[in-house]
Amino acid sequence: MTFLEQIFDRLQRAATAPVAREIRDGNFVSVTGSALLAMTQQARQFLVARGMQKGERCVLLAPNSTRWIALDLALMAEGVIVVPLYARQAVAELISIMKDSTPSRIFCHDAALAAEIKKRWPQAPHISLLETVFVDDAKSVASAPPRHADDAEPVTIIYTSGTSGEPKGVVLTAANITFMLGCTNGRLDLLMDARTEPEQVFQYTPFCFAASWIVLLTVLSRHSVLTLSTDLSKLSEELKLASPEYFLNVPTLLERVRARIQESVKHRGGLANAIFPRAQQAFIRQHNKQRAFADSFWLGLATSLMFPAIRKSIGPNLKALICGSAPLSVETQLFFMMIGIPVLQAYGLTETTAICTADDPRAVEPGRVGPAMPGVEMTRADSGEILVRGPNIFAGYWQRPEETAKALEGGWFHTGDQGDANENGNWRITGRIKNLIILNSGHNVAPEPLEETLAQLLPEAQQVVLIGNQRSFLAALVTATGVNGLTDARIQSAIENVNAGQPHYKQIRAFHIVPEPFTIESGLLTTMGKLKRDAITARFAGEIDVLYQKKSS
Fold first, then answer.
1. Contact predicate 101/398, CB 8 Å
2. How far apart are CA 252 and CA 260, in angstroms?
3. ∠312-316-320 over CA atoms, to 5°?
4. pLDDT tens for residues 378-394?
5. 318: buried, middle or exposed (CB in 10 Å: 19+, 13-18, 0-12)?
6. Which of 172, 244, 297, 530 could anchor a disulfide with 526, C-beta 3.0 to 4.6 Å?
7. Angle between helices 91-101 and 111-120 (to 10 degrees)
8. Which domains, from first to last, does the chain contain?
């Protein structure tokens, strides 16, 4: 049975029960299994009526919704290859990706965005608004089984940025996805145990990202109810309303929650502010096997007087927080473990069908991202690069045979990440071999194009280096040449020009002027004159920390 057949079967068995719901104005708008199947069938009829053929590509450009889910299922059920795109991406980048994927049709949620695409790309294929697909009541539409897909058939093309900054389409097959859902269901079975009540799951990360999409398909195949966030500005309120048992996170959110709790305790003062930091220090010493005499006392006080209320404020029913897309600090993972909420990490790339490793809930090691999924092989090259092979490895980059061959050289996928595994088989990610910047939000940014543009606008500068790995935004180090005119105002003006038209995660939000250029002699350039990025960030670590602290305060 393919992954899609498994999902359809599960929705049929949950015909009268809610399987997904949106939060709208503080209320749930739910769909049952039969209703979601009917919406899917309605979308399939829309596709057939417009002549969509198996193997054609279709862009899905919209934020998360039950309509997104139904249309995605419909496209896959008809054998149409789905190209999901990020609704907040810059229009120019969206058009570039769409030209590369050559879709037969574009589905868009927003009329203004559709008009802008058509204006800038007059040759664009037909654009349909999502609302036109679901104009009639779908409850009366009978469902049909999905077309059977061969294992090797492409199901989706998910675009991911490369080090050159030019997005590449990652082709994932039915076999990739069926295998991965077996892995993710296995891990969740360990977390949730046998039960009769449906699992409560929350989702705020966009479905167009590989990890989010795999979570979506996994939840649809399980006895679960998926609650969709519709307003990130109300995320805290939505979480309380949804009361999930687990959900996917990016490190940015967990670090914000941790900071908010610590600030709240500090603001309260008194006994709370006396107990909490001592309990934190005690927990860290306990983790490091360096217990002090009074540690049990302070941890006991916090566990009985403070941690239950903190857990309730985050999510009273949480069994675990799942975190991926970027490295999570050990301190943040230990913080949540201390208050009684496990954080399960996963590691992978779009090319590995989102996941290579995931924590076993029974044996979590903070700072590590768990063992390889069953059936996935991982090894470490002499360079320290992580290599992967298995049924989760993508079929190739869309229309890029040379780059595909390079990525799969020697029969292994070359991740571009550095890491190592310990005696328990749990992997640790230690850095990037490639220059790609991975923000805390999980967005990937190739620094070179932005650096080049900014340097062109600042002839007074010798070098421009973007930073931001594991941070919440991009910043720039700008070196002086001794020429007059490199002022704060001058740099800020140039940055504003660069930011214009860029998506939010590619905007540079802070900068620091380095008075002397990077040189070979200083150890910050190679003999070929290339930037030693790790050496630069290490040399200016103090200045970088101050830069981010000022911007965050």
1. yes
2. 12
3. 115
4. 999 998 899 999 999 99
5. buried
6. 530
7. 70
8. 3-173 (3.40.50.980), 252-316+320-432 (3.40.50.12780), 446-552 (3.30.300.30)
pLDDT at 268 over 90: no
How many beta carbons lie within 10 A of that of residue 441, not counting itself?
18
> Which tens digit of pLDDT belongs to each residue from 473-507?
999 999 987 655 688 899 999 999 999 989 999 99
Residue with tokens 């709370």: 272
Contacts 24+ apart (CB under 8 A), 339-347: 339/307, 339/310, 339/311, 340/303, 340/307, 340/308, 340/311, 341/311, 341/314, 341/315, 343/254, 344/187, 344/191, 344/320, 344/370, 345/369, 345/370, 346/211, 346/322, 346/370, 347/427, 347/429
> What whole-number distance in Å separates Cα of residue 494 and Cα of residue 503?
17
3-state helix, strand, coil in the chain (%, to 5): 40, 20, 35
Report the candidate in 155, 521, 102 with the shortest Cα–Cα distance to residue 353: 155
- Report in angstroms the alpha-carbon separations of 168 from 75, 211, 385, 399, 501: 21, 17, 21, 9, 21
CA distances from 501 to 98, 248, 254 (A): 18, 29, 29
pLDDT (tens digit per residue) in 410-439: 999 999 888 999 999 999 988 777 778 889
Closest CA to 463 of 417, 508, 409, 524: 524
Task: Decide: 160 and 213 in contact? Cβ < 8 Å.
Answer: no
Q: Give kind and range of the element (H or E) at residue 60.
A: strand 57-61
